[in-house]
Design brief:
Blueprint lengths: L2 H9 L8 H8 L3 H8 L7 H14 L5 H8 L4 E6 L5 H16 L3 E6 L5 H13 L4 E5 L18 E4 L8 E5 L1 H14 L6 E4 L5 H16 L8 E2 L4 H12 L6 E4 L2 H13 L9 E6 L12 E4 L2 H17 L6 E5 L2 E3 L12
Parallel strand pairs: 1-2, 1-3, 3-4, 4-5, 5-11, 6-7, 6-8, 8-9, 9-10
Antiparallel strand pairs: 10-12
Helix pairs in contact: 2-3, 2-4, 6-12, 8-9, 10-11
């Protein structure tokens, strides 16, 4: 037998699970010392810690998370219930939540549900409880909580994103109203007599908040309020409504409820021979990474999804650990990013 064979025979992980005692024997320390290292305790000197960690890596030791969770009463795991993965905002929010959870030492379990109904949410809660999560984040895309008969299961910490849940739950959201108001005011301040709106789905909380603020801003300014055109967040729906608006001489400014629909609007305007912003100015909402590369670069409302995710996980962990107990809404500010797709209203002949 060669020296290499001797090392392999001694150090190669066996098919059975490696125990704490195996690590202790390999490292020449007590099982209590292995436990301290495994749990991140600081009362172990650096040399011993490195020796134990090296033995863990060599043997392929995996700490018994379930046993540790039973002892502490926590599983260091967060569940996320989402109704759609297709929108830019939801994906960016999920990415931010995952980043913030990992930084806090929590794992994430995603539970997509097809429809925002009481039964679907109750089922998702049950499945997440079976997986022993400490708390749950829910990302709504609809006014589900407006229904007085709708209630979330109790007994587990919950934080909600993108919903108007009032004081019943802990909510984190971007300032939809501020974003819609600054977008509309920006166009009015450029001399446009009114602003047309390509809205998101009527069932969406975000879309409805942006639409109602757009309408309120026009009314407060004494401007006409055109009928909104409802899209589905897609570029195609923006393109379809853009073709309709491109054929109207009275349209000089368009506020689209997201950047994807704004892109569709701009394509329709280009194809119709309308200059942006010479004939028609366009504003979007989201500030996607690509919006600065639109033709021309898109003026849009920036949403800080990273801050939404950070605030969400901070408040959820606070509820889990008992340091944050009162419900309420936290609003993350939005801001207008002015680029080349907006300009003064065209002179009228």
């Amino acid at each position: 037998m060669t020296d290499v064979d001797a090392i392999d025979a001694t150090d190669r992980p066996s098919r059975r699970s490696v125990s704490m005692a195996d690590v202790a024997n390999h490292a020449g320390v007590s099982s209590q010392t292995v436990s301290r290292v495994s749990n991140g305790k600081t009362n172990v000197d650096d040399a011993t810690r490195e020796r134990v960690l090296a033995s863990m890596r060599t043997l392929g030791y995996r700490p018994n998370r379930a046993a540790r969770s039973l002892k502490s009463g926590r599983f260091k795991s967060i569940g996320v219930i989402m109704f759609t993965l297709s929108t830019f905002g939801n994906m960016r929010t999920l990415d931010a939540i995952a980043t913030a959870s990992a930084a806090a030492g929590y794992t994430l379990t995603l539970m997509p549900v097809p429809h925002p109904t009481q039964g679907a949410i109750s089922g998702a809660f049950s499945r997440l409880n079976e997986q022993a999560v400490d708390g749950i984040v829910i990302i709504f895309e609809a006014h589900v909580l407006d229904d007085s008969d709708f209630a979330l299961p109790r007994g587990i910490p919950i934080v909600i994103i993108d919903s108007d849940a009032g004081d019943r739950y802990t909510v984190v959201d971007t300032d939809q109203a501020l974003g819609a108001r600054t977008a509309t005011e920006h166009l009015l301040n450029l001399g446009h007599r009114t602003v047309w709106h390509v809205a998101g789905p009527a069932s969406s909380f975000s879309a409805r908040r942006r639409l109602s603020t757009w309408r309120e801003t026009l009314t407060a300014a004494g401007a006409d309020v055109p009928e909104p055109l409802y899209g589905d967040w897609s570029t195609e729906s923006g393109y379809r409504h853009g073709l309709e608006l491109a054929g109207r001489d009275d349209v000089t400014a368009i506020f689209a409820a997201n950047d994807q629909m704004a892109l569709g609007v701009m394509r329709a305007l280009h194809e119709s021979g309308r200059s942006i912003p010479g004939d028609i100015s366009v504003v979007g909402f989201d500030d996607t990474d690509e919006s600065k590369s639109f033709w021309p670069p898109l003026t849009t409302v920036h949403q800080d999804f990273a801050e939404v995710g950070r605030q969400c996980i901070e408040k959820l962990i606070g509820e889990i650990e008992g340091t944050h107990e009162s419900p309420g809404t936290t609003i993350v500010p939005t801001r207008l990013v002015v680029r080349d797709s907006t300009g003064p209203a065209p002179a009228r002949s």
